[in-house]
Write a structure and sequence with these properties.
Layout (H helix, E strand, L loop, with lengths): L3 H16 L16 E2 H8 L12 H10 L5 E5 L5 E6 H10 L1 H7 L11 E2 L3 E3 L4 H9 L10 E5 L2 E6 L1 H26 L17 E7 L8 E9 L7 E7 L4 E9 L3 H20 L8 H19 L6 E9 L4 E7 L4 E5 L2 E4 L4 E2 L16 E2 L1 E4 L5 E5 L1 H4 L10 H11 L4 H16 L8 E9 L4
Parallel strand pairs: 5-6
Antiparallel strand pairs: 1-7, 2-3, 3-4, 6-7, 8-9, 9-20, 10-11, 11-12, 12-13, 13-18, 14-15, 14-19, 16-17, 19-20
Helix pairs in contact: 4-5, 6-7, 7-8, 8-9
Length: 453
């Protein structure tokens, strides 16, 4: 039975509960969203959740645990109305089960609750972040690390929470953050102006196929296709193409070191810089290659300034001039570019990026030397590039997919960009079988066809 003092404290608690019944709407309210509120505690236990005082007889709490089988945890207040400790149902049952003397001692009316409660409760404001809660909970002694903890709202008892609820909340927030970043990343990789991905309907892979038809009989036709698939959530691969001039198409494929949100932030820097620079570029009359070089110098400088010092990207920037049939390659230490001609594949590994004092990676040096390597193309040539998620994937025995398998596909497959990417992905999937994928995937295939009448 509850005594009169407990009933009065119950009335006080109800006013506190009403005070905090409407959840504030702002992002910092994290712990408060992962809590069993007083109302919910009442529903679960059947008890009105009047908090006992530390000077109350311990037998009163014992009676509460006996009368309310679903009551598991009770905070305890001191004479000032501040929570000073807590009791656990299993704690009381353990004491009772020790021996007859322990039971008789606890049931004596002069035994106060303060002698049996656990002190040093973790008390967090409802506006605390889940990260702050996690740090406070893990700092507790091992024997109480997984005990429930108290949540307050404006210094009033609001409810209790647990390690399990905090972990679930952190996973939920992380999942939502990942989904938001993934949506933003797909927006960077979108192909149609104004197209948006709907929340909850984000594709796991982005695929594009495109044909750039010749405007005159002197300009070759360009077919290309690309594939990007993050390993899980937002990733570190970027692939995009841009109509650079009426004669040239610019292709980009970058692979950021690292994975997850950290890598995706650098992809966002790369994509946003390229999109903004090209959209608002002012015509200067300079050659396409001069424009590309200046664009890449700007991209490198911004990536260097905005990315963490340990972050960089390898990649390929490829300018294809359809009139002159020249591929200008800017290889940022990537080395994964092939040309397939007459059913034979050759790897193009020359690079004009960097010097003896500079690593050729994007974002590693603010003043990176950037120069292209030029290749003469022929009608029927196919260019292929991919990230190391393709090349370095291993099967169950530890064997790497390797460049020879890429060259096998390029040599035996009809030079159609969409078909090449599809065959490459199927071969890759068959090769790894049950082995776990370890990296993001991206591919880009470009076919130079004859001018069309």
């Amino acid at each position: 039975m509850q005594n009169t003092a407990m009933a009065e404290r119950s009335h006080s608690l109800e006013s506190s509960e009403k005070h905090g019944s409407t959840l504030p709407i702002f992002s910092a309210f994290e712990v408060g969203r992962k809590v069993l509120t007083v109302q919910r505690l009442k529903e679960l236990s059947g008890y009105d959740y009047a908090l006992p005082l530390e000077d109350d007889p311990a037998v009163q709490v014992y009676e509460l645990y006996r009368n309310f089988p679903d009551l598991q945890y009770l905070p305890v207040m001191d004479s000032r109305g501040q929570i000073s400790g807590y009791t656990l149902r299993n704690q009381f049952l353990a004491i009772l089960s020790k021996n007859h003397y322990s039971r008789e001692l606890m049931l004596r009316p002069d035994v106060k609750l303060k002698s049996m409660m656990r002190t040093g409760p973790v008390i967090l404001d409802a506006h605390a972040t889940l990260s702050e809660a996690s740090s406070a909970l893990m700092a507790r002694p091992e024997e109480s690390r997984f005990d429930p903890f108290v949540v307050t709202m404006e210094d009033r008892f609001y409810g209790i929470s647990t390690v399990d609820l905090v972990l679930r909340g952190m996973n939920s927030f992380l999942r939502r953050d990942n989904e938001a970043c993934l949506e933003a990343q797909h927006a960077l990789l979108q192909w149609q102006p104004g197209e948006r991905w709907e929340p909850g309907n984000i594709p796991s892979a982005s695929v594009q196929k495109y044909t750039r038809t010749a405007e005159s009989r002197e300009i070759a036709t360009l077919d290309f296709s690309r594939y990007v698939s993050p390993l899980s959530g937002p990733g570190g691969d970027f692939s995009q193409s841009y109509d650079f001039s009426n004669q040239s198409q610019l292709f980009m494929l970058f692979d950021v070191c690292g994975k997850g949100l950290k890598a995706s932030s650098m992809v966002s820097i790369i994509g946003t810089t390229l999109h903004s620079a090209l959209r608002y570029e002012i015509a200067t009359g300079e050659s396409d290659n001069t424009r590309v070089r200046k664009l890449l110098e700007k991209l490198n400088a911004i990536t260097y300034e905005l990315s963490p010092a340990e972050m960089y990207a390898t990649g390929i920037a490829l300018l294809v001039n359809r009139k002159r049939k020249i591929a200008s390659v800017y290889d940022f230490g990537h080395g994964m570019l092939w040309i397939a001609r007459n059913h034979r594949a050759h790897r193009l590994e020359k690079s004009g990026i960097g010097n003896s004092d500079q690593a050729p990676f994007l974002g590693m040096h603010s003043d990176l030397l950037i120069q292209p390597v030029h290749y003469r193309l022929q009608d029927g040539d196919l260019l292929f590039s991919c990230s190391d998620g393709i090349l370095e994937q291993r099967d169950g025995s530890g064997e790497m997919f390797g460049s020879h398998r890429i060259e096998e596909i390029l040599s035996r497959t009809r030079p159609e960009p969409e078909r090449i990417n599809r065959e490459m992905l199927q071969y890759w999937e068959s090769f790894r079988e049950d082995a776990r994928a370890t990296d993001d995937l991206s591919m880009m295939s470009i076919f130079l066809g004859p001018a069309r009448a």
